[in-house]
């Protein structure tokens, strides 16, 4: 499959360059974790590689390995921080797969028995709510 070229003007590239604000939860040399501003549940975070890649089709194996190691770490953190019963991990590639922002990213969403995911409405969450949730997750990482 041939995918379009990486566009360095996407929102996550701008966040990585410090051109747009975000609620940072965790960072290491290869990954950044931020709050999803349109969460489908409390504690919904995004794990993104620092290296540019569009999605699963063009990400370097080392970067993918780093992303998944961070996903695993963060899944445990959100479960602990929110007292969740489990997580949903999602990665979308290309428009047909549901991808909207074309920089590789993985969704980590705390899940609770009997509670459905909120619909993806495109509505942004309250900034103070996201800040508080980011702090709650950072607190269990220390």
Features of this protein?
3 helices; globular; 30% helix; single chain; alpha+beta; 142 residues
Written overview of the protein:
- It is a single chain.
- The protein has 142 residues and is α+β, with helices and mostly antiparallel strands.
- The protein is 30% helix and 18% strand.
- The protein has helices at residues 11-16, 61-82, 127-141; strands spanning 24-27, 31-35, 45-49, 86-90, 106-111.
- The chain has a five-stranded antiparallel beta sheet.
- A hairpin with a 3-residue loop joins strand 1 and strand 2 (31-35).
- The chain is globular.
- The model has no long low-confidence stretch (mean pLDDT 96).
**Number of contiguous helices:** 3
Radius of gyration: 14 Å
Averaged pLDDT: 96
Anisotropy-based shape: globular
Low-confidence stretches: none
Structural class: alpha+beta
Please write the string of helix (H) and strand (E) elements: HEEEHEEH
Total count of strands: 5
Strand content: 15-25%
Strand order, sheet with most strands: 1-2-3-5-4
Helix content: 25-40%
Distance between the termini: 42 Å
Main β sheet profile: 5 strands, antiparallel
């Amino acid at each position: 499959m041939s995918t379009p070229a990486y566009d360095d003007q996407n929102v996550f590239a701008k966040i990585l360059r410090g051109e747009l604000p975000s609620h940072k939860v965790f960072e290491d040399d290869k990954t950044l974790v931020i709050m999803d501003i349109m969460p489908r549940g409390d504690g919904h975070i995004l794990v993104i590689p620092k290296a540019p890649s569009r999605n699963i089709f063009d990400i370097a194996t080392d970067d993918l390995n780093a992303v998944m190691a961070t996903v695993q770490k963060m899944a445990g953190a959100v479960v602990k921080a929110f007292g969740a019963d489990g997580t949903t991990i999602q990665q979308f590639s290309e428009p047909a797969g549901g991808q909207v922002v074309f920089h590789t990213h993985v969704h980590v969403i705390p899940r609770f028995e009997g509670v459905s995911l909120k619909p993806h409405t495109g509505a942004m969450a309250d900034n103070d709510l996201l800040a508080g949730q980011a702090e709650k997750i950072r607190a269990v990482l220390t």
